[in-house]
C-alpha cells in the first residue's frame, strides 16, 4: 500500500473521531462547574469577610464598591457553575466568569509570578520560589528530626503555596475555549434550545 493511501486512511480515521467532539466541551464544563461553585460558595458563606477582603487596601484587594464587587463575583461563580453544569446560556455566562478570572489574576496572583506551588527549579522559578524551596527543605528536616514527618505527610507531601497565576490562567483559557465552542452537542440545554429555535424559524419561513 502506497504511503499516500495510508496517510489518507489515517486522516479519514482521525476525521471520523469528530463525531465525538461534543465530549471536549462536556468535560471542560464538568471540570469547571465544581471549581466555580466552591469559589462562589466559600465567598457567599463568609460574605462579610469577603467584602472586607475586597475593599481593604492594606491586606486585601483594595477594590472600589467592595459589597457590589463581592456580590458580582459570587453571582458570576455560582451562576456560572449552574450554567456549566446544565449547558444553559453558557457562552453568555463565560463572559462574567472570565471577567472574574481576570480580576483574580491581576489583583491577587500577578505579583506572585506563574507558579501556584513553589518549586525551586524550572522555567518559571523565581527568587521567591527558590527561597520557599529552601524554607521547605528546612521544615522537612526539622520534622524528620522530631519524628513527626511520616505522620504529617502520610496523605501527601508538604508544599509551599506560591499563589501565582497558574490556576487562574488555566481556568481562563478553558472558559475562553467554551466561549468559542459553546456547551457542545447532545448533553446541553443550549443545544436542544437552539434546535428548537431553528426548527421554529424554518417553519415560519416555509
Automatic annotation (TrEMBL):
Keywords assigned: Cell membrane, Membrane, Transmembrane, Transmembrane helix
Main subcellular location of this protein, as a coarse class: membrane
Membrane topology: Multi-pass membrane protein
Entry's transmembrane regions: 20-41, 61-86, 93-111, 168-187
Entry protein name: DoxX family protein
InterPro entries (alphabetical): DoxX, DoxX-like_oxidoreductase
Location of the protein in the cell: Cell membrane
Cellular component terms (Gene Ontology): plasma membrane
Native source species: Stagnimonas aquatica
PANTHER family recorded: DOXX FAMILY PROTEIN, OXIDOREDUCTASE CATD-RELATED
Family, as annotated: Belongs to the DoxX family.
Keyword flag Metal-binding: no
Amino acid at each position: 500500500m502506497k504511503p499516500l493511501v495510508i496517510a489518507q486512511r489515517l486522516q479519514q480515521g482521525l476525521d471520523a473521531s469528530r463525531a465525538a467532539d461534543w465530549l471536549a466541551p462536556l468535560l471542560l464544563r464538568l471540570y469547571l462547574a465544581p471549581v466555580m461553585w466552591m469559589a462562589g460558595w466559600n465567598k457567599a458563606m463568609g460574605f462579610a469577610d469577603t467584602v472586607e477582603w475586597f475593599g481593604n487596601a492594606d491586606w486585601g484587594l483594595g477594590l472600589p464598591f467592595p459589597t457590589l464587587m463581592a456580590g458580582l463575583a459570587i453571582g458570576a461563580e455560582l451562576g456560572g457553575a449552574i450554567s456549566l453544569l446544565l449547558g444553559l446560556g453558557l457562552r453568555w455566562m463565560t463572559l462574567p466568569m472570565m471577567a472574574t478570572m481576570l480580576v483574580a489574576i491581576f489583583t491577587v496572583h500577578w505579583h506572585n509570578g506563574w507558579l501556584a506551588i513553589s518549586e525551586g527549579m524550572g522555567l518559571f522559578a523565581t527568587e521567591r520560589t527558590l527561597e520557599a524551596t529552601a524554607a521547605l527543605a528546612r521544615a522537612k528536616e526539622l520534622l524528620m528530626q522530631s519524628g513527626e514527618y511520616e505522620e504529617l505527610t502520610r496523605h501527601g507531601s508538604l508544599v509551599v503555596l506560591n499563589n501565582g497565576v497558574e490556576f487562574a490562567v488555566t481556568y481562563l483559557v478553558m472558559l475562553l475555549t467554551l466561549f468559542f465552542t459553546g456547551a457542545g452537542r447532545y448533553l446541553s440545554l443550549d443545544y436542544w434550545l437552539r434546535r428548537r429555535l431553528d426548527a421554529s424559524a424554518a417553519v415560519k419561513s416555509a
